């Protein structure tokens, strides 16, 4: 099956804020700049649109459903949400205890933000989603999600180490096409 991974467009939040699963609106200017490029990279038809239920993904998925795919239903999945930063959510990075932040940054794969999840847990969610997906008989799938999820999928498909996931470039509004074998 062909999979089109789309990262949401630029969110309407300052870069100094930690916002993994915080529900953040999109920047309308960024959306308008990105949408034509996104549309041009997608197939004319698709079997299904999956999306994170967070607003920055659901708005793009709804737009694609309405304007590209003839009102195709969007399937929302919590498995596609960004990493949960727990008590760090919606706080300035500079206001987070810098010792705790450094511990996490040194080993984000295994260490958890307070009350949140580590990258292994996000990766397990993503693998659960991929298991569900590969048991379907879809030819084309569009997925609107977050950078962490996209990096996790690419790490899984390319069999690279999770610790190297953040070296994968994933810009706002980017579309990555890949082929995935079903079971």
What does this structure look like?
With 183 residues, the protein is α/β, with parallel strands linked by helices. It has a single domain, classed as Rossmann fold (3-Layer(aba) Sandwich), CATH 3.40.50.1240. 35% of the residues lie in helices and 13% in strands. The protein contains 5 helices and 5 strands, in the order βαβαβααβαβ. A 5-stranded mixed β-sheet has the order 3-2-4-1-5. Helix 2 links the parallel strand 2 (48-51) and strand 3. Helix 4 crosses helix 5 (147-158). It is globular. The N and C termini lie close together (11 Å).
Provide a quick synopsis of the model.
The protein has 183 residues and is an alpha/beta fold.
List the helices and strands and how they pair.
Layout: E1 2-7, H1 28-41, E2 48-51, H2 55-67, E3 74-76, H3 98-106, H4 119-134, E4 140-145, H5 147-158, E5 175-179
Parallel strand pairs: 1-4, 2-3, 2-4
Antiparallel strand pairs: 1-5
């Amino acid at each position: 099956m062909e999979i089109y991974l789309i990262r949401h467009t630029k969110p309407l939040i300052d870069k100094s804020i930690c916002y993994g699963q915080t529900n953040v609106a999109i920047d309308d200017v960024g959306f308008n700049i990105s949408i034509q490029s996104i549309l041009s990279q997608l197939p004319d038809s698709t079997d299904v649109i999956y999306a994170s239920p967070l607003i920055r993904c659901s708005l793009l998925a709804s737009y694609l459903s309405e304007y590209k795919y003839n009102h195709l239903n969007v399937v929302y999945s919590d498995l596609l949400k960004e990493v949960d930063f727990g008590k760090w959510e919606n706080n300035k990075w500079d206001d987070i205890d810098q010792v705790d932040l450094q511990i996490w940054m040194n080993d984000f794969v295994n260490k958890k933000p307070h009350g949140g999840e580590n990258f292994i847990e996000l990766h397990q969610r993503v693998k659960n989603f991929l298991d569900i997906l590969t048991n379907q008989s879809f030819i084309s799938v569009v997925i609107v999600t977050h950078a962490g999820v996209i990096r996790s999928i690419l790490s899984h498909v390319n069999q690279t180490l999770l610790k190297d996931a953040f070296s994968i470039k994933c810009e706002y509004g980017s579309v990555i096409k890949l082929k995935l074998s079903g079971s």
